[in-house]
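Researcher: Please generate the 3D structure of the following complex. Treat every line as part of one assembly.
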Amino acid sequence: MRYILITLYAMLATLPAMAQVRVVATFTDLADITRQIGGNRVQVTALARPQDDFHLVTPRPSMALELSRAKLFVRVGMDLDLWADDLLSAARNSYILRGSPGYVDCSVRVKKLEVPTTRVDPSMGDIHIYGNPHYLFDPANAKLAAQEILEGLKRVDSAHAAEYEQRYRAFVQRLDEYLKRWQEIMAPYRGKPVVVYHKSLPYFLQRFGLQELATVEPKPGIPPSPGYLREVIARMKSANCRVILLEHFRPRRFADAIARETGAKVVVLPAAVGAEGTTDYFSMIDAMVRRVASALSGS
Amino acid sequence: MRTFLLTVLLLACGAVGFALAAPDPALQAEIEALKTQIQQMTERLRELEQKMAEQEAQPPAPAAPVTNLPQISVVANGSALFQDRKRDENRNRFEQSEIEIAFQSFVYPSIRFDTIVAFDKEKHFSGSVEEAYATIIQLGNTPLGARLGRMRLPFGRVNPIHPHQLLYSDLPLPLVNLLGDHGAISNGGTLSYLIPARNLYADLRVGLFTLEGHAALGVPHEHEHEGEAEEEHDPAQFGAEGQLLRMARLTLAPVINPDNELEIGLSGLTTKAVNGDNLRVLGVDFQYRRFYGAAQRLLLSGEWFQHRRESAGRGVNRQGYYLLASYKPDRYWEYGVRYDWSQRAYLHEEDDVTGADRALSAILTYRLNEQSYLRLQWRNLKPADDDMRNELIFQLMFGFGPHSHPLESTQ
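Model: Done. Output below.
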């Protein structure tokens, strides 16, 4: 009996140490980065599916349920995941509301591109008023996002702060090694023009020195007209541009139509962890880099 | 002799000097190549330094403006009704039905305030506050939330939702016949409890309200039929305007998987009519959504209502339901079909209409963006007390701003 009681006490005493921090991230790339920082100390859920369009995620009761139990909420910010705001209200969890310890906005340290300097309205399409929010396509910004996640984890689980710091440094070191390798792969293609479907790749293009020649959408979120497609085709032929980049969830028909006329290659990029067979943030960016490099080498 | 030796010495020095001065062609070539490379690199370095200087000279990107303003949204809802029978005086012309202006903001940590001012065609576009309520997201550390103020009665699936957020241009017949043709607006409050359950979203909401508007709980609007004398009704005594209403709603959503979502709702309300009749409405609703690719979605939903009036010891039940199937193949288009069947609420024996109204609708929607859309809806309507008619509704909905009802939405 005494031994049973001792064993039971020992088990109960270790329970707090075994409890995981429940984290909810808006997208799968943030969820993966959080797992890499948190290790087995965190249980992470992504609200959006890998195949979802970032801008069109449908809020659902099951998402509110996850948020109601979360100790940390991690978001991209810059209005990309605006759909999450009303979920936060429905979740009845004030610990993860803006300004609370469990709230993490990964965009705060990012040097933002394409911040509007004039008045914006829907005549310009779906414009993000705080700048282009697709900053995670530049691996250097993943370090900044990881830093915010680290600070969040340290706030909600200070007992394991040292462990999170160590994992963060390992993540950054690994990312620096990968970044160097990716830059070597992309070095021969600096300055090359590409066409993108939507204005979601400026950070990626800037990092690897590519030039955005045109977008398939005339304005963000607006489908192209036949006349506009002809313009894009003419520009591609004039610039000898042979590569069209689009995220895995975009419709292909417009890009394919352009490719038929120009002989260009349509490159589908995995824009979320879990898409196109990717398993983590590194494999996602790696796949993006290699597919773009392969297409540019053949052009 | 001396001269000879000097000459030989001079000649020898010259020969050595000549030998030393003669360059190695290969070495020369290598030196020239290196010089060319250095020149190219120097030029490239100069270009890069200039580019860096230009970038540094650019003004820094402005930070997000700091303001203390609420979120402001504007929604303009207009439609045109075409009928093959002359039943509506506003047929065959396009009219602005309603303009809404919403102001939404947090006013305190965990307390949010929403105000929606509506300018309605039926009130000659004079402004009125359609909704103005405070939402307490969490009461202390409990899983309780509260909402207080003026709001669309949180009964059923569709009634709490603003018409411009629906997947069709009209209100389903059961809502019009049994709840009210504009839905029910009410003043009061709810307490909501997010029931802690592992793989089940379960939200229980209870509320106390006083109803506004004569068109409440099945009491119809005044209406005119072409060719007939205007009939005067006094619906006030059969409605529940100003009466205390108790309601409860349970929303259940089991966690299935990321591609499938099912919601089931149970609603109930009780109140008394102005004339003392007991009124009770029960509702059961469901919504199933299957998500495919990035924007593809199949939606099946429906509601069933039972309206009961107890008067002088006699109770009369009236029922109605609708079923909707809607498919979105991409982010722009949506196709839907809806069937409505509904009896009319029992008011009194003299004017009672037995039988049921029926309608079949086909709906085509094109979304310009998340806030604006064009819609065409064909409706075949067979009222219980009139001939069948075909209607075509063309709707234009323009909006900007973040005004939305996410979890109550049928999206």
